[in-house]
Write a structure and sequence with these properties.
Helix 5 links the parallel strand 3 and strand 4. The chain is globular. A 7-stranded mixed β-sheet has the order 2-8-7-6-5-3-4, with helices on both faces. The two termini are 34 Å apart. It has a domain of 237 residues: 3-Layer(aba) Sandwich (Aspartate Aminotransferase, domain 2), CATH 3.40.640.10. It is an alpha/beta fold. The N terminus is likely disordered.
């Protein structure tokens, strides 16, 4: 095997052998690893942080059995004790997205991608012949899910602020007139945090026939719901379905997704009532994510979530100023928690674990990161610009 493809041999102490290992010794080793990582942890802004305090608070839930099966509003064998928790989550997120329990149906998914897939299954039932119109700035999961569903994906250009171009959507849908349009809008694009204006997108696509607007709000729904600086994006603005993510901003140790679909979309999309909501795509599912999400939201309250978003927006505004002074040409969408800038040298990206695409990097102002952390990053960027070694 060449050096380029050789792999590092696994640590013998970590190998999974034929016989069971002593559980007490493994537990001690894991606790030691946690202490080592905690001491050596460097602050980073590239991804939302999973707060240690949050995980400690939620640790008792790891001992619960919650086997979710079927519809979230119907009882099951193991889940009588958690149905109320999941119903409360759906009520919370429906209100957050401008809907209500009476006009939306949904469920708590084990990941944002599954939530997205379930929503697009429903959309395709309503418009089986339609193409899916997806922005070039959309999350890559959108194209993956559309491919899994066998849908034809039409990529739509983005304008300068990172949002989907209504004029290009108008042109592309007119080329496919009569089949209808499944438009996948984004609330919080991965690199810019841009929010598509779904009122403009519906108007642009309306000439092609019935229109279904799905909003992928996994990246920015929580921020948008607590900000007055975003364009129309929610169920209240005419979305037919919407998916959100609970874990990045709230720092949960496991992913969660929320799928919401309007019960009656006739008035919004001109589509005949679709088949019943398909519900979860998987059979048996762990309810741990839902319980963790419910517990975290209860500990914060609506006011606490709003304060968390406001704090992140304040830090993002500070970052825009400081990174501008560092000469890295930052860009920021008002209300977003993402600041995009020129990708720095490798040592800066590694230190701060920055997410990057091409020549750009981003920071996401969630978790414990403060003005001081941004100032330290800006200092590193200034050092990098001067050619100083890390």
């Amino acid at each position: 095997m060449s050096p380029r493809t050789a792999t590092t041999p696994p640590d013998e102490d970590l190998a999974i052998g034929v016989q069971p290992s002593p559980p007490a010794a493994d537990t001690r080793a894991l606790h030691q690893l946690q202490r080592v990582l905690d001491r050596g942890q460097q602050p980073f802004l590239g991804f939302p942080d999973h707060l240690l305090q949050v995980m400690v608070e939620l640790a008792p839930l790891l001992g619960l059995l919650d086997d979710q099966q079927g519809d979230p509003y119907e009882g099951g064998r193991f889940e009588a004790g958690t149905h109320g928790h999941r119903a409360a989550l759906l009520d919370y997120f429906a209100a957050l997205a401008g809907g209500s329990p009476d006009d939306t149906h949904g469920y708590v998914a084990p990941s944002p991608r599954e939530a997205l897939q379930s929503a697009l299954v429903q959309a395709r039932r309503a418009l089986p012949e339609s193409s899916a119109y997806v922005s070039v700035e959309a999350h890559r999961d959108v194209a993956v899910v559309c491919e899994l569903l066998g849908m034809n994906v039409v990529r739509i250009r983005a304008v300068a602020d990172g949002t989907m171009d209504p004029e290009d959507l108008r042109l592309q849908t007119r080329l496919r007139r009569g089949a209808g349009a499944l438009v996948v809008a984004t609330c919080g694009t991965p690199m810019r945090g841009a929010v598509d204006n779904i009122v403009d997108l519906r108007s642009a696509a309306s000439a092609c026939g019935p229109v279904h607007i799905h909003v992928d709000a996994s990246g920015g729904g929580l921020a948008a719901a607590h900000s007055s600086q975003v364009p129309p994006w929610s169920l209240a603005h005419g979305a037919d379905s919407l998916t959100l993510s609970g874990h990045p901003l709230l720092s949960l140790p496991v992913p969660t997704g929320i799928c919401l679909v309007r019960r009656d979309r006739t008035s919004a999309a001109g589509i005949q009532a679709a088949a019943p909501f398909p519900g979860p795509l998987t059979g048996t599912r762990s309810g741990l994510g839902a319980l963790l999400l419910w517990t975290r939201l209860r500990s914060l309250g609506r006011a606490g979530v709003a304060a968390m978003v406001a704090r992140g927006q304040d830090v993002a505004t500070h970052a825009l100023d400081q990174l501008g002074s560092a000469g890295v040409s930052p860009r920021h969408v008002p209300g977003s928690l993402i600041v995009e800038f020129e990708r720095p040298p490798r040592w800066v990206s590694d230190k701060w674990r920055l997410h990057g695409e091409g020549g750009l990097a981003r920071i996401t102002t969630t978790g414990p990161w403060t003005h001081a952390a941004v100032d330290e990053l800006a200092a590193d960027l200034n050092s990098a610009r001067r050619g100083a070694a890390a």
